[in-house]
Amino acid sequence: MGPANQTHVSEFLLLGFSEKPEHQLPLFGLFQGIYLIAVGGNLLIMLTIASDSHLHTPMYFFLSNLSLVDLCLVSTLVPKMLVNLLTHSKAISYAGCLTQMHFFMIFASLDTLLLTVMAYDRFVAICHPLSYVTIMSPQFCGLLVLLSWMISLLNALLHSLLVMRLSFCSEREIPLFYCDLTSVLKLSCTDTLINNILTYLIAVLLGVFPFIGILFSYTQICSSIMRVPSTGGKYKAFSTCGSHLCVVSLFYGTVIGVYLSSSVTQSSWKSSVTSVMYAVVTPMLNPFIYSLRNKDIKDALRILISRMISSQ
Question: How many Å apart are CA 297 and CA 52, to the nearest integer?
């Protein structure tokens, strides 16, 4: 075997979905539609929040950042999948695979951290309403988002640098439609002990701990809501965090589904379907969850659409 940083493959194969040619065009149409809806929906949420001064609050500031991250996440994965479906090819270059893996880790980590920050925002708003404006100042909100970006960038950079030192030999099939870190590590013909230790460690730091933080926030939120005397007051308090709770449930539910399915089945089709739910369908649904369940967003959307129509 050559040096540790020698790479013997110039490309990987993304097994993804069905290999039957008659399935490629329908799959291309399906995922092109999902991609356009995800991009359009998240752009619309960002534009709506930016155009309405009533939405220039911490909650919607975090939501606009989440929409940006979701837009970037689907744009990292779906275009390459569409090209491969259209050209009946499964190949992705070595450099392209590492690049896709790097940006996927950035935006997946950001999703987790931003959902945690949004849970903290709701915790402060409901449990400490009198101190909300003081605690969630624009400077502090900006710092939380900046820290989320910095942590995600450093995480992805560290993983990418450690992967670049590995050697890849004859095995080059990835049982997904994108380059996933754990799948890439399994293809290496050099020792990946350090990579695996770091992967599990960061999964705990950026996956489990944020989830515990979200659970703690909602435990405190539910406790505070139960102390509200009126039913109307309870409903109003819970409605401010209902959309976020739906998004958190969808995100972590699909993440758990991805890892459970990958440990139970070796089928590339089943693994890709569960991965699509987490990496593509969830970013597409988030704008609808927030817009359909949030009166402020719906009102701002109506105003924005009426302005667009009147300006034509």
Answer: 9
pLDDT at 106: 96
What's the farthest any 2 CA atoms get from each other in the chain? 72
Within-domain flag for 147: yes
The rounded distance, in Å, linking the Cα atoms of 301 and 55 is: 11
- The residues facing 86 across adjacent strands are none
CA distance 275 to 262: 9
Backbone angles phi, psi at 270, to 5 degrees: -65, -40
Residues of the chain with pLDDT under 70: 1-8, 18-19, 233, 236-237, 258-271, 293, 312
Instruction: Answer whether 283's CB lies under 8 Å from 42's CB.
Output: yes
Number of H helices, E strands in the chain: 12, 3
Cβ within 8 Å of residue 151, ≥6 positions away: 109, 113, 206
Closest among 144, 109, 124, 114 to 217, alpha carbons compared: 124
Q: What pLDDT is recorded for position 252?
A: 84
Q: Are 244 and 119 in contact (CB under 8 A)?
A: yes
CATH number of residue 294's parent domain: 1.20.1070.10
